[in-house]
Each structure stands twice: as C-alpha cells, then as structure tokens.
Design goal:
Strand order of the largest sheet: 1-2-6-3-7-15
Shape: elongated
Oligomer: single chain
CATH class of the largest domain: Alpha Beta
CATH superfamily of the largest domain: Zn peptidases
Helix content: 25-40%
Bound molecules: zinc ion
Number of helices: 10
CATH architecture of the largest domain: 3-Layer(aba) Sandwich
Radius of gyration: 24 Å
C-alpha cells in the first residue's frame, strides 16, 4: 500500500468544505423532522455521478412519521467489479434544536480558520462529508474493486432512530448477508474507535395516595411523601450500589464507567393556578421518570427487577404505600469485540495515517449501533469519525476541516484494506 489514497483524500479539502456547508444549510431539525427529503435528494445528486444506486426510503408508520414530516432515508450502493464484502458508512442526517447562545448563523456554514460552524457540523454532517470524500477518493483510484460500498443517511437518530436505522434494519438493510462492515462516523475523535454503548432503561414510577383537604392532611394519604421515601431509598441504597458496579467497557468519561441513574422529572399533586395560589389538597399522585443506564455486565431483567424489589419492599414496610411501575423504553447495550475485522482494519489505518495506536472507547449514551446489533443482527460495527463529542448539541457547534481530512484518510485506507484483496 502506498500513499496515493492519502494524497488524493487530502486534495479534496475544498470538496469536503463545500459538502459540509451544503449539508449544514439544509436545516434538518428534529423535532419536528423537517427537510429530510431535501437532504436525501441532495445526496442523490452527490452520489449518482459516482455510480451509486440510490434508494430513498420513507419509514412509513414509524414513530414520528407523518405526511407533514415524513421520515426519509437514503441508502446508496455502489457495486464493485467482483465478489467481496460490503462496507457501509451510516450517518444520521437529523440535527437537534438550535437552542440559545449562538454567535453564528446555525445554518450558515460559516468558516473561520480551520472550523466550519453550524448545527450538526460535528454531530454529524462533518462525518458524513468525510465518509463521502473517502469513498470518492477510493473510487477514483480503484474503480475495479471487490465487494460493494454503501453510504446511508438516516432519520431520527436524535430521537431514537426508529424512523431511521431501526426501520431499515427491520427491512433487512443491515442483514449480515448484505452488509459485512459498518462504520458510523459519529464525532468520537479521529484517533478513537468507539466499540459500542451502554444500555438504557426508562420507566415511570407513580406513587398513589388519597386526596383530602389540605388543612387536614391526616385524612388523606400524601403521594408526594411516599415518593420522598422512594427517593430516599435511591439516595441511600440504589445510587451508591450503582456507582460501585464498574464495567470492563471502556466508557468515556470515567464517571460513566459504571451503572448510573438520572431522575428525569417529578410531578406531584394539583397544578398551581396561573397566579400561583395552591390548591388545598393532599396529593393523590406523584410521578417520576427514571433514566437508568446499564452496563454490558448487567442484564435488563435484573435492572428492572432491582427497582421493582425496592418498591415492593416499601410496600411491605411503609404504611399506605402503593405504586405503579411502567417501562417507557429500553435499549440493549452493544459492544463489538476488539478482534472484530472492522475494528482491526480501522485500528491499522489509524496507525498508518496518524502514526499512533488508537484508543478504544464506548459511549455513555446510545446511538444507532443498537439497532444494527439487535435488529440487524450485525455485530461488526463501530463508530468512528471526526469531531469532538463535547461540541455536540452545543451553541456554536463546529467541525475541524483538518479533522475531517484526517479521518477521511483513515476511512479511505480502511476501504483499501477491506476491498482490495
Ligand atoms: Zn449523532
């Protein structure tokens, strides 16, 4: 292997800038999930000249899909000239809300020095643009390659991926007989390979009480006090136990290298009226939503039964305590072994391009790998792409142009390793 592909990728600096700016200027905000069709059609124009066969796929009936805001995805495939594996680059095309605090036009694609600014610049339109120039450089040099290359841009990752990768996986697009290597260019850093992510279990807990006049609370049963007892158990028993439960997954940052739980929300009692005068009532209901992140060493049944046991215990010991527990959502952890071919290939390419060994990480939150793993049954999948994770979802989000080139070189080199036997 010589350095031709690295030079050719590097020469696409103007190209990657233009692509990133164009992508940022299509404001694919989620919610509501807008301009999805527009960004897919833009990508058809980009990829068709490289002989990609482009399919636009609407996730009919998926959560969030409507005629006002249809969930469009694109899967583009270019066949090689002989049999071989398929390498798939999957990016999500949706971006989160702009939020406050911007000093730049969030959809302008402004450039200063080595940075391109905009909502989605780092998460993850820069990664998508990097994968496109990597593929273009590869195809220009090696039109006669083995296997196939796919590029997808998918909807709704920021809201769970059900109208995007989950839907495509259900339709067989990530079947291991069709696709063998998946790289998701999420902004994890150009010298890091992300092997997977923790799991998540979301549930609503309601404590029940009995309404009565607020001047005579002894005639009622206060649901908020019962919730207080639940929170006390969390504070004294559950949270310390979770913090002590460490994982072998290389999760970053360090604080997420164990089980964790967030209490997302709490609602109890009657709502105050507009002028803030309270209702004189003992609350008969209090609800919280918990966000329990769990590690690969735990299984989801234990995660939910641990909470249920805690609540049952309160029911046995605390007078008047009653509750309801309802699962809201679940995500299974995913972890690709370091020995997997796509990991080995990208690791070798990082050494080649950057002259150092990669670090291996796992993500504290989940991303679309969960669907590729659980629904697609495809294990040979990683996240690898340019950008700093800390910038994602923040004001004045940006992507480094040099970072995009460097990671595109790694992707292009990986294509050489996988498709030029
Ligand atoms: Zn992302």
């Amino acid at each position: 292997m010589d350095d031709a592909i690295l030079h050719r990728t590097e020469a696409k600096r103007d190209r990657v800038i233009a692509l990133t700016q164009d992508l940022i200027r299509i404001p694919t905000l989620n919610p509501p999930g807008q301009f999805y069709r527009d960004i897919c059609e833009y990508l058809v124009k980009v990829l068709t000249p490289f002989n990609f066969e482009c399919k636009l796929i609407r996730a009919d009936g998926a959560p969030g899909d409507s005629d006002a805001f249809p969930r469009w995805n694109i899967v583009a495939r270019r066949e090689g000239t002989r049999a071989g594996p398929c390498v798939h680059f999957n990016s999500h095309h949706d971006v989160v809300a702009v939020g406050e605090g911007w000093t730049r036009d969030p959809f302008g694609g402004e450039i200063e020095d080595d940075k391109i600014f905009g909502r989605g610049a780092c998460d993850m339109k820069g990664g998508l643009a990097a994968s496109i120039i990597a593929v273009e450089a590869f195809l220009e040099l090696y039109p006669d390659f083995a296997g196939a290359i796919e590029i997808s841009a998918t909807a709704d990752e920021e809201s769970g991926g059900y109208g995007g990768v989950a839907y495509l996986a259900q339709k067989g697009y990530f079947d291991p007989s069709r696709v063998q290597h998946v790289i998701i260019p999420e902004p994890l850093g150009k010298d890091r390979i992300c092997l997977g992510h923790r799991g998540g279990w979301w549930a609503e807990i309601e404590t029940k009480g009995e309404i009565a006049h607020g001047s005579m609370p002894f005639l009622g049963n206060c649901a908020v006090r019962h919730m207080g007892a639940v929170l006390e158990r969390f504070e004294h028993d559950l949270l310390p136990a979770l913090a002590a439960r460490m994982t072998d997954m290389p999760v970053v940052p360090d604080g997420a290298r164990s089980s964790t739980m967030n209490i997302n929300s709490i609602h109890g009692g009657q709502a105050e009226s507009y002028d803030g005068l309270p209702a004189h009532c003992v609350p008969d209901s209090c609800r919280i939503v918990i966000d329990r992140r769990f590690i690969i060493e735990e299984n989801i049944e234990d995660v939910s039964s641990e909470i249920e046991t805690l609540l049952e215990n309160l029911k046995d010991t605390r007078e008047g305590f009653d509750y309801e527990l309802q699962e809201v959502n679940r995500v299974i952890p995913s972890m690709t072994p370091k020995t997997a071919p796509v990991v080995q290939t990208v690791a070798a390419s990082i050494s080649d391009v950057m002259g150092k060994h990669p670090s291996y990480i796992a993500s504290p939150g989940s991303y679309d790998q969960k669907h590729i793993d659980r629904i697609g049954k495809l294990k040979n999948c990683i996240a690898y792409g340019p950008g700093e994770l800390e910038l994602a979802h923040k004001p004045d989000e940006w992507i480094g142009i040099t970072d995009m080139i460097d990671s595109a070189q790694v992707m292009a080199r990986s294509l050489e390793r996988l498709l030029l036997p």
